[in-house]
Amino acid sequence: MDPSLCSNCNLFFGNQEGLCSKCFKESRLKKDTLQTVSEILNTAPTILEEAKHVPQSSPDRCATCNKRLGNINFRCKCSQYFCTNHRLPEEHKCTYDHRTVGIRKLSEENPVIQAQKFNKL
């Protein structure tokens, strides 16, 4: 029986499966990584789409630091009240998705405009 070249790289003689030792190791490594990736994806916990909204106990206090608000209070789009220190979404870990709403608003206000193509003469 004459030895045949590797079916993958055609540089070295292959074994009974038709692969040289280098290509066999690479194919084995690729199979193992695919298996581990699929196992990780199957066992990964599912991420909740939207955080559950917990109503604020008292609207006269900051939802983050529980500081008394008085006359100056800021209501966020997540429908909670905050003091001047926690009024920004980054400061109080806001659950409202400002980015998606902004993208949707821009796409509605600015439709795609395409010019008519010229006719060939």
UniProtKB/TrEMBL annotation:
<protein>
    <recommendedName>
        <fullName>AN1-type domain-containing protein</fullName>
    </recommendedName>
</protein>
<feature type="domain" description="AN1-type">
    <location>
        <begin position="56"/>
        <end position="102"/>
    </location>
</feature>
<dbReference type="Pfam" id="PF01428">
    <property type="entry name" value="zf-AN1"/>
</dbReference>
<keyword id="KW-0863">Zinc-finger</keyword>
<dbReference type="InterPro" id="IPR050652">
    <property type="entry name" value="AN1_A20_ZnFinger"/>
</dbReference>
<keyword id="KW-0862">Zinc</keyword>
<dbReference type="GO" id="GO:0008270">
    <property type="term" value="F:zinc ion binding"/>
</dbReference>
<dbReference type="InterPro" id="IPR000058">
    <property type="entry name" value="Znf_AN1"/>
</dbReference>
<keyword id="KW-0479">Metal-binding</keyword>
<dbReference type="InterPro" id="IPR035896">
    <property type="entry name" value="AN1-like_Znf"/>
</dbReference>
